[in-house]
Design brief:
This protein is mainly alpha-helical and 200 residues long. 76% of the residues lie in helices and 0% in strands. The longest helix is centred in the first third of the chain and has 22 residues.
Length: 200
């Protein structure tokens, strides 16, 4: 059976998340897949190109996901009108969808775990972690809330993102991931209702 690039990237992600990026070699990935190193190099020139391909895949999926929910796929500076036209309920629906994606999708979960582990190892990994799981999404939600007229936009953005971030950690360590998801969704609903009522 032919091994696809996607299968190679997923296997690499899982090994990177388990052993660390620097400690994982192309030979390790090839062995896990039952391929020769030569066969691996037919797909990727090396580990750096393989990782760059993983990043490109994540960026593509991120763009598609935001556009499919009618939410901005660019920064506020690049497309302020899209932020002004965003619907609050769509933001919270997207947050739930993102939570499922980052905890249930095999590729996305491995990528998240890799960046969580590697963020302290290099400046590149730290910036990627911030972009995907820290300052990046927090800033995105702050801008969305500000442009949709949410009172105390920054505080409410923190409430949403803190719920998501804690949920990721709890989901990783829980034997009952559905229970964690239910709790996270209930907390997100609570934030949404408080915003609608104009409460703190």
């Amino acid at each position: 059976m032919k091994t696809t690039k996607r299968e190679i990237m997923l296997t690499a992600l899982k090994l990177f998340a388990k052993k660390g990026y620097e400690a994982t070699s192309i030979a390790d990935i090839a062995e896990k897949l039952g391929l020769s190193k030569g066969a691996m190099y037919k797909h990727f020139d090396g580990k750096k190109q393989l990782f760059d391909s993983i990043l490109a895949e994540m960026e593509r999926e991120d763009l598609e996901r935001s556009e499919s929910k009618n939410l901005p796929s660019k920064t506020k500076a690049e497309d302020e009108e899209s932020y002004e036209n965003a619907v609050l309920s769509d933001v919270f629906d997207f947050a739930k969808w993102q939570f499922e994606y980052w905890t249930e999708d095999e590729f996305a979960t491995a990528f998240r775990r890799l960046l969580t582990m590697e963020q302290f190892g290099s400046e590149e990994m730290q910036k990627l972690y911030e972009n995907y799981f820290s300052a990046g999404p927090l800033g995105y939600v702050c801008d969305l809330f500000s442009e949709t007229g949410v009172e105390r936009a920054v505080e409410n953005a923190y409430a949403l993102w803190a719920t998501m971030h804690l949920g990721y950690s709890l989901s990783d360590s829980s034997n009952d991931k559905n229970k964690v998801k239910k709790q996270v969704f209930e907390m997100l609903d609570d934030v949404y209702e408080r915003i609608k009522r104009g409460e703190k």
